[in-house]
Amino acid sequence: MIQYEKTICPYCSCGCGIYLVIEDGKIIGQEPQTDHPINEGGNCPKGRNAYQFLYAEDRLKTPMIRKSDELVECSWDEAFDYIVKKLKQAGPNEFGMLASGKNTNEDAYVIQKFTRLVMGTNNVEYCGRLCHSSTAAGLGPTVGSGVMPISQRDLENVDCIFLVGINLKETFPLMYMRALRAKERGAKVIVMDPRKSITARELSDVHLQINSGTDVAVINAMMKIILEEGLENKDFIESRTTGIDALREHLAGLNLKDLVKICGVPLNTLTQAAKIFAKAKNGSVLFNQGLNQHITGTDGIKALATLALISGHYGRPGTGLSPTRGQINGEGTGDMGCLNVFYPGFQKVGTPAEPHKKFAEHWGVDSLPENPGLPYTKMIQQTKYMWIIGTNPMMAAPDTDNVKKDLESKELLIVQDIFPTETAELADVVLPASTWVEREGIHAYVDRRVQKINKLIEAPGDAKPDWWIVTQIAERMGFKDKFDFSSPREIFEEIRRVVPPYKGITYERLEETLGGIQWPCPTEDHPGTSTFFTEKFNTPDGLGHLQVVNYIPPAELPDKDYPYILSTGRTIFHYHTGTMSRRTPKLDAEVSGALLQVNPKDATLHDITNGTKVTLTTRRGSIQVKTRITDDVPEGTVFLPFHFSESSANKITNPALDPACGMPEYKVCAVKMEVSK
Ligand code: SF4
Question: Is it the case that residue 92 has pLDDT exceeding 90?
């Protein structure tokens, strides 16, 4: 019998609807969902090929334990006994847990509850640390919240879109559709990107082709121009912000010629962008890793939010600064508290709210950890026992040779995933997990849009949902009464009780509401919240706090030994570390390996043509990769997608961290390029 079942695309966090065609329990085809309000019948290449990876031959189906240096299949009981015996020896600071932006909210909730309640530590993180931790650190002090303040649907009605460090067409294709519609209606688009990306080429009215890592200098220049020309929104500044005098004084002390020299963008182009942005009625800013992944990512975000505030672009549909979290549940896993300083609902440790006390009461225990845990990369370095769920630091973390050494030295490394990833190869115990259509649960997509996923097919072999595996181990650690969940629905009911923004969202409402409900949703008759900050910001005084920041250069710049800048990013056909997309034949046929983008002038210098194999060397190590000659990259810069293990970009990226949030500087490091022998 053939059924058509609705679900949501498992790739990016736009959250597009798709139909899966299922025959006798097996998915045999798919169609875009025409009535879904996010994609309106469209899907990008990944979304059109959403399910094939499920049937890849190497799906993990059975638990495995390492014996005599080999991973050997075992029963769940055997795996649980082994894990529990080891974990009982772990001190609180010796243990760490990494979750994934692909976990459901229910998975993420029990993961952080396990870490805090069973293991007694805040050492819980997820891959969001590596893409948007600077967002929370930058927007927290500025507007009081690090989430997208709008509905992605409202983008098409603004009259200026400023895209900062985001190649929208390749990374959020259905949001690109909204931006394109806005442009067709007369909106101006400014793109800030060192590369002439397809987004910059197709969509921009002004392309700020900056020198890599000079975002703060550009934004300071734009703000200086706006204030000097008197284009700021004086009413908005007066009524809704604080700090304008300090900002004016700071910018007055900067010299535009110096800023132009730093960022490499001509003054007339900067002026054009500043005027378009400041004069727009409703300006929207989308930003992503190009801004975030620097040692100064937090500074860049503070400056950008300040630019939006002095221009009055906040508090109306479509306006404000929107972080674009990448994974399907990149938002929800953070909402649920898989971060070293946040209990569920972004209740921060060390604040007067004392979330550790609140949650101790909710969970019926005497105490919970009150100090910050270790951030992602430090957790890998400093813990002895690690449990990694659905994420692949051996491809995703910077400087992976050192990550490997750290992971190999663990007393216990548990990896729970759907495929034998590069990280699973190092594990002591491998636990097979189920995917998005093999279990029920909810995700929060990029604009806080909560949608429900249903179980449509059985997981292969003995694979199980993440929440089930965690609760089984919690029970065996002696906490059955605290993890007495028999379904995701029961977990979600606990979430609704302890995470106020989710209180009014129920499984029943989500099943009836096409396109989901945007949190905060305080009551069961509340429609959800599409626009934040309409009256006040989430700061203690309700005002937007204008920030003063100075340009600081990247941690590692080219020199005579390493004369190029290496930058990394994504392509439309693949996704993150390639675990799913590289097991999708149609996607892998489109792009089957990494191609290093090299500027034609640099190519001539090295006698390189399309397809030449080169060796890239940084202070961390070397990789080999084939080249693609293109003037998308400026002279002196090479660009490498990070999806491909055989030319793994993160083997050589710089692990230098943003001191404010622990974000690695993926976007700039110094590299040498030689034709391979
Ligand atoms: Fe899937 Fe994102 Fe493409 Fe939509 S835009 S189909 S959610 S990958």
Answer: no
Instruction: Supply the pLDDT for residue 636.
Output: 97
Q: Is residue 102 part of a domain?
A: yes
Q: Determine if ligand 1 sits within 6 Å of the CB of residue 174.
A: yes
User: Alpha-carbon distance 28 to 185, whole Å?
Assistant: 39
From the CB of 46, is ligand 1 less than 6 Å away?
Answer: yes
Domain residues for 416? 64-120+349-518
Q: What ranges in 185-242 are assigned the alpha helix state H?
A: 198-203, 215-228, 234-240
For ligand 1, atom 6, which residue shows the shortest CA distance?
47
Is the same domain home to 27 and 145?
Answer: no
Q: Please give, one letter per residue, the 3-state secondary structure of 507-527.
A: HHHHHHCCCCEECCCCCCCCC
Indicate whether residue 11 lines ligand 1 (CB < 6 A). Answer: yes
Q: Residue 141: is its pLDDT beyond 90?
A: yes
Point out which residues pair with 657 in neighbouring strands. 664
Q: How far is the CA of 14 from the centre of ligand 1 (A)?
A: 6
Ligand 1 nearest-atom number relative to CA 173: 5
Q: Does the residue 526 lie in any domain? A: no
pTM score, two decimals? 0.95
Find, among 484, 438, 489, 441, the residue nearest to 464 by Cα: 438
Residue 549 lies in a domain: no
Is the link from the previous residue into 520 a cis peptide, with omega within 30 of 0?
A: yes
Atom number of ligand 1 nearest to Cα 12: 2
Site of tokens 């800030």: 192
CATH code of the domain covering residue 403: 3.40.50.740
CATH code, domain carrying 298: 3.40.228.10
